[in-house]
Amino acid sequence: MNIKLLICRTANNCEKNFLKLNPLGQVPALIINGNVLTQSCAILEYLEETVPHPPLLPKDPVYAAEVRKIVDVITSGIQPLQNDRVLRYVGEKSNKWAKHWIHSGFENLERILQKTHGKYCVGNDVTLADVCLVPQVFRASQFQVDLLNFPIIRNISQRLNRLSAFSDTHPFQQPDCPINVDHVM
């Protein structure tokens, strides 16, 4: 199986080539045997269906619904308001805008996690919610969101980042990571 995950569309002047793969120009894009999959949730669901071990959705439908709720809070409620395309449109106030919406989203997420968390977002197993949380916490750090206000998010994120599945895939570990990842827009 030939697999390639593209998480940066600007490295090595590849934007035109990237647009050929994904006309939306958004990342990530997962290429598997020549098939291009886009959009984070669609990719995560594909991986859950095709690589079921370890499972990233609990078998219990109630816990699985909690995982999906957290995924939606992050991917629909926080991330779209601070993605690069929106921040370019907002202009000079983009850092303030992003920080506000991440902080606001984390307030809601912290309340949810009070009821669902164990070692991780939902219980003691890594789930799709955790996979979405880690990059959002990374993005929050780019906008100086103070995680001391969010102890559950901070603690879960720290535990997750100690796992090789997360530390090995950190943006700074990627060969196409821009030198200045703090302000990639």
From TrEMBL:
Belongs to the GST superfamily. Zeta family. It catalyses: 4-maleylacetoacetate = 4-fumarylacetoacetate. Residues 1-55 form the GST N-terminal domain. One of its GO terms (molecular function) is glutathione transferase activity. Its EC number is 5.2.1.2. The keyword Cell membrane does not apply. NCBIfam families: maiA. Keywords: Isomerase, Phenylalanine catabolism, Tyrosine catabolism. InterPro entries: Glutathione-S-Trfase_C-like, Glutathione-S-Trfase_C_sf, Glutathione_S-Trfase, Glutathione_S-Trfase_N, GST_C, GST_Zeta, GST_Zeta_C, Thioredoxin-like_sf. Residues 60-179 form the GST C-terminal domain. This is maleylacetoacetate isomerase. One of its GO terms (cellular component) is mitochondrion. Gene3D superfamilies: 1.20.1050.10, Glutaredoxin. GO terms for biological process: glutathione metabolic process; L-phenylalanine catabolic process; L-tyrosine catabolic process. It comes from Caerostris darwini. Its cofactor is glutathione. The keyword Isomerase applies.
